[in-house]
Design goal:
two-stranded antiparallel ribbon; 5 strands; disordered N terminus
């Protein structure tokens, strides 16, 4: 089996599999094992989140082009702000929200943390890391707090900051009221209903009564009855100042169906759930509305796909596509199914059509390059990936695929340079340096690639020396 075929089988259909850090993790205690972080790259999900956020960011006097929201595949309820204006939401939080306004409420709260400078403070050399590397650090911190393992928590903070974890979290808790007030103001200016933030906070606080361990969101965003009442009271005095953003609830239903189909343990059970909903029509629920019928058939098509019943999945997609104009998200799903069936020409046709409708989508460009490489068009795949990297320089997986493609083309210097950049973005310095050295060795003397590899390698080696000196100074102080 070829390496690329193995990669295709490992690539989750809805999410980009991002491998965890492979470097030494001597600071991790208690036999903790690294777990993969799955970052949602699906353009339909990300586009909806981006459109919900835009009026909030404008209300907060932030440039929507500079703030990036990410969703990671995690069933728990959590959200957090990171350096360089990254905000991360767990998929469980999106599924738990009952409306677009509730999602907007949580997002506005995180924007409040961002504008107030409440995000986790990470080492400056990590600020240009991939989002996966930043998320792993934040999740490691949360895991250590939940388990009471402060050694694990501190090891998860990039750069080994020595500040006590309890002090960090106490400081964050003190700022919740400030973020709530900022969030209500942003929601009001954006046209969302601020009361929905109180509704969502009340819902997640109820989950604490059902479990001994509160959800991660409550560890860093403690919710008391008093806090819920304060937000509700403030929201009652703060009605929206402008019309509600023009976003269809059907889009949320589609995204929820997609997440539900893609995150279940048993896809066949998911197909039964969606079939049952399609057969349910009644005034007491939304199953009978046109939007919900579309969403449930969409979820059925995707669940069938994840169950390996590809012809049936295509039949359901054909029904959805019959009476609608070209939909880039449906074209993407059909293209990925065709790729799984080894119908690469049809896959490329669908992915190209979707890319024309969504030319800025990293996900579509990445999958199209993947399909091209599988079809044997290595030159086209490499060219596309280089363009993708220019537009999305922090997407580590584009560098990885480029490294594989260049290796298949026999361009070993370019292959090692791309793989070095992939590991550098994932903060795996040791592996990155190995690939940089191999790139310098494989390129011809004086070649542009050789100079780039040498310069980047020397900068990374300098960072390693400076970090080791800083660690020694910290050890001496303690």
């Amino acid at each position: 089996m070829t390496l690329s075929r193995t990669l295709r089988q490992l690539l989750p259909p809805l999410f980009m599999l991002l491998l965890t850090l492979t470097g030494p993790r001597s600071g991790m205690a208690g036999g903790q094992e690294d777990k993969p972080v799955l970052v949602v790259t699906d353009p339909e999900i990300n586009d909806l989140i981006t459109e919900i956020s835009k009026p909030l960011l404008i209300a907060a006097d932030l440039d929507p082009e500079t703030v990036r929201f990410h969703i990671i595949l995690n069933a728990s309820l959590n959200a957090f702000a990171l350096p360089n204006q990254h905000i991360v939401l767990h998929s469980g939080l999106v599924l738990a929200a009952g409306s677009l306004d509730e999602i907007a409420g949580v997002m506005a709260h995180e924007v409040g943390h961002l504008t107030a400078g409440h995000h986790l403070k990470l080492k400056s050399t990590a600020r240009n890391a991939s989002i996966k590397a930043l998320v792993i650090s934040a999740m490691g911190l949360a895991a250590g707090v939940a388990s009471g393992n402060h050694q694990l928590s501190q090891a998860a903070i990039i750069g080994g900051q020595a500040g006590a974890v309890s002090e960090i979290l106490d400081d964050m808790r003190e700022k919740e009221t400030q973020s709530d007030r900022l969030a209500v103001g942003y929601l009001q200016k954006a046209g969302y209903h601020p009361a929905e933030l109180a509704t969502f906070l009340d819902r997640i606080s109820q989950t604490q009564r059902l479990t001994d361990l509160p959800p991660p969101y409550l560890l860093t965003h403690p919710v008391s009855s008093q806090r819920v009442m304060e937000v509700a009271s403030l929201a009652a005095e703060t009605p929206p100042l402008r019309p509600h953003p023009d976003l269809s609830e059907e889009r949320l239903l589609r995204v929820r169906a997609k997440l539900e189909a893609g995150t279940g343990i048993d896809p066949m059970r998911a197909t039964e759930t969606f079939r049952a909903r399609l057969g349910t029509v009644g005034p007491e629920n939304l199953q009978g509305t046109p939007g919900s019928r579309f969403a449930n058939r969409y979820g059925l098509a995707l669940a069938l796909r994840y169950a390996g019943r590809l012809p049936e999945a295509l039949e359901e997609l054909a029904i959805l596509m019959k009476d609608r104009p070209p939909d880039p998200y449906l074209l993407r799903e059909r293209g990925l199914i065709q790729m799984e069936r080894d119908h690469l020409a049809q896959a490329i046709e669908d992915l190209e059509a979707a890319s024309r409708l969504k030319p800025d989508s990293f996900d579509l460009a990445y999958h199209l390059a993947f399909a091209q490489s599988e079809s044997g068009d290595l030159t086209g795949a490499a060219s596309r990936l280089r363009r993708v990297i220019v537009d999305h320089p922090l997407e580590a997986e584009a560098y990885y695929l480029l490294g594989v493609v260049e290796g298949k083309r026999g361009l070993m210097g370019a292959s090692h340079l791309a793989l070095a950049r992939h590991h550098r973005l994932n903060l795996d310095r040791e592996t990155a340096l190995w690939h940089y050295r191999e790139a310098v060795r494989q390129f011809a003397k004086g070649e542009a690639g050789e100079e780039s590899a040498r310069d980047e390698m020397e900068r990374l080696e300098k960072e390693a020396v400076e970090e080791e000196r800083a660690n020694k100074r910290r050890r001496l102080r303690h």
